Hints:
The protein is α/β, with parallel strands linked by helices. It has 2 domains: 7-116 and 283-294, Nucleotidyltransferase, domain 5 (2-Layer Sandwich), CATH 3.30.420; 129-276, ATPase, nucleotide binding domain (Nucleotidyltransferase, domain 5, 2-Layer Sandwich), CATH 3.30.420.40. It is built from 9 helices and 10 strands. The chain has helices at 40-56, 97-105, 114-125, 185-188, 190-197, 210-229, 246-258, 270-273, 283-294, and strands at residues 7-13, 17-24, 29-36, 63-68, 108-113, 133-139, 143-149, 152-153, 233-237, 274-275. It starts with 6 loop residues before the first strand and ends with a helix.
Amino acid sequence: MAANNSYFAVIEAGGTKFNCAIVTDERQIIAELRVPTTTPDETLSACVAFFRQQREAGYAFTRMGIASFGPLDLNRASPQFGSITKTPKPHWSHTPLTDYFTDALQCEVVIDTDVNAAALAEYQWGAAQQARVAVYVTIGTGVGGGLVVNGAPVQGLVHPEMGHMLVTPPAGQAGTCPFHANCVEGLVSGTALGKIWQQPAHTFGDTHPAWDGFAQVVAQFSHNLLVTLSAEKIVFGGGVMETPGLLDKIIAQTRQSLNDYIVFPAGTSLEDILVLPGLGTRSGLFGALALLQAGQ
């Protein structure tokens, strides 16, 4: 094994799985493990075991980046900094991610939301390079949105919670979010689609009638992001967005919704703004590395 003092531990902590890896500054993945998101004790202990094995194999690291599902407490003055706060994910509310890994692995931990981290990675290396205002949206188990402005992830009162933006549901549908009647997450997440249509979203097929209503909701979402943030790139990731043709439906509905109101710069179209990730399924994992690099 070649000598290398620049190994980093990174985690993309999702509602379905935790992706753990050892990476280099150049985004080379040395070792990787996917851990199912079950209970905090079971999931986090498996992650720690993986990273301890990597240290024993010679991949010493002193810093960890975590790109996590939320909501998160990102107030550095808070005793609960780095913890998941109130989440609909069973068992995970008030889980102290930062403290857990700091104590277990004796390393510095940098944390942000999975979508803020993914937005930063797409800005650095992916589909949102050069964008002054870049949004990353994941549509999978849940729906989240991260925002990077002039190369920095945005945090404010807490952090962006774009998935809970209120929208008008498709005719005959009602949202499934336990907190809000008709938010984006409660209508188009994989979890919501399964409840609304009484079958898992991955079984729909490309021509399932659910996709028309899905595109209608995500187009409202895109309309609101464009008129509110003046986003130069909105990158759509997550498992649901891997459905062929879905982005085209969203673009068509967004164009209809905007009704030519926004005058785009010459040579720019909605197809240039609403895009799929340049990093594929690695946006969140490399986002954890981007957080570390931004903090150096």
